[in-house]
Amino acid sequence: MKSKEEMFKGKKLTRKDLMSVFWRAFLLPACYSMDRMQAPGFAYSIIPVLKKLYPDKKDLSKALTRESEVYNTTYAMSPFILGITASMEEEAATNSNFFISTINNIKVALMGPMAGIGDTFFWGTFRVIAAGVGTTLALKGNILGPILFLILYNIPHFLTRYYGLFLGYDLGTKAIDSLSSGSGFQKATNAASVMGLTVIGGMIASMVNIKFAYVFKSGKTVLNLQSIVDQICPDLLPLAVTFFIYWLLQKKHVKTSWIMIGCFAFGIIFKYFGIFK
């Protein structure tokens, strides 16, 4: 990683701007949304950068809108993505040939891998080790137990956030410089789009759980409707419901609150009549 002086040489953004993002990122989970998840916090975190890059209110509004798209990953890893996003927004503000769609595509592509790394190290490793040390002392009545737990967990957490932000900004700048010639941006956009769609597809299969409960009986013959659907295409029903909700949001502009109410209502009705499990 470059030194701070080299990193910001010839750039609109400064270390002060990124430090504002760094401190704001601690509040990223403070405004969690059920439909956009951590997106409000992400948009709030990157506001200092956007205000610096887009003095015009219309441009600022567009930038805030695209930074409010669905976003979710391990909190400790978010500054890394914020750094990359800041470098791409800086390029978008100064280069009219920059593909704006690349910004969100890269974010979506990074959410899954960063969550995998972050959850493994922070939730599955650092927290467990820190809790083990802290509780051992706490059970003996030692006041250092909870204090040591917070220190052991938050030191790597804090350092990952700090260096991750600047590393992300530096890597984003290098990537933009290397891709700025030829059709590099278009290829990167296409690759990020494919990666993003793959991540979303995996989320649908793992997070949307809808199954038919209906069973056809004719004499001794029993046909399970869900088994038949799975033979055609596994997880077809969750995919169909996801596309239907997407159609309602994008084409019919139905409010998220009404869609949630509808999902609850139809879920209860279909469960009551034994259609869904």
From TrEMBL:
The keyword Transcription is assigned to this record: no
GO BP terms: phosphoenolpyruvate-dependent sugar phosphotransferase system
GO CC list: plasma membrane
Domain of life: Bacteria
Entry keywords, A to Z: Membrane, Transmembrane, Transmembrane helix
Transmembrane segments annotated in the record for this chain: 194-216, 228-249, 256-275
PANTHER family, per database record: N-ACETYLGALACTOSAMINE PERMEASE II COMPONENT-RELATED, TRANSPORT PROTEIN, PTS SYSTEM
Protein name listed in UniProt: PTS Man IID
Organism field: Lactobacillus kimbladii
